[in-house]
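Quick question about two entries, pasted in order.
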Amino acid sequence: MPDHPYGQGFDLRLVPEKLAEPLRWATPRKVFVNSMSDLFHKDVPDNYIVSVVRVMTVANWHTYQVLTKRSERMRDLLRTKLRFAADHSHIWWGVSVEDRRYGLPRVEHLRSAPARVRFLSVEPLLEDLGQFELSGIHWVIVGGESGAGARPLQRAWVTSVRDQCRCAQVPFFFKQWGGVQKSRTGRELDGQTYDALPDVPTVASVMSRQRRLEAIANVEYEGTVV
């Protein structure tokens, strides 16, 4: 991938020159933040995370989905250094939930974090999660593993989560069955697709070009204009 940060490998590295990117996009987008990494990785400095989130609060015509496995760190920062962003409805805070041992504790961390929109990415779902608490959760995505060596997804595991979402009135999105050939297995569950999204307000109006240029000029990381 020419000129892409991953062209230099997959070791963790910061790319401060990318911080202002959302301010350059005049058309509203859904942005999967750090889609190939984790914003709350232990080696990402708190100040860098704060800089990323400040840009998200300014470029508020986009919708941001922040997903992590480092749920305790996200919770702690949302209570402290990121408290300024916790009530923004265009920033969705989520955790990965793959199993009972590692995934379900993250749900509790997320539920105890101050956030306007909280979501669960139950993908890949690797076992039956049993009954778990969904109060304070605003969206649940479920999906199976895909690609070579994908572990199978059992229908009962999916319907258990779906039915709990129904009872708790939480929007449910079924992404895929997965498998080696996910295009063949599709994403229908009991003959229908599930595409529910969180019920949140419409995104804000896009800034004028002049205001966006001024905002870009003010993007900083640790006191340095990027």
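Here is the second entry:
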Amino acid sequence: MTQIVLDNINPDVLEKIRNLAQKHNRTLEDEIKTILAQVAAEIPPQPSVRASFRDRLLEARQRHGNQLFSDSVELLREDRNR
């Protein structure tokens, strides 16, 4: 498990967290872990690169009326063979 050292914590903030820990019958460390877990749960998940690409692809298809474009490979081959 990773250890984190926090220096220069505002004394007022530390006292409030100590009071919360005592109120919840937790250690200071457990109270801080609980607070961090609650805050982290509120952070929306970031879409994966693949999901982001699929979303952009879908948007592009919708902008072009779901029009399908031909594969340009054959056109390139014809052009090279001239």
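Reply: The mean pLDDT is 89. Helices lie at 11-23, 28-42, 49-63, 73-80. Hope that helps.
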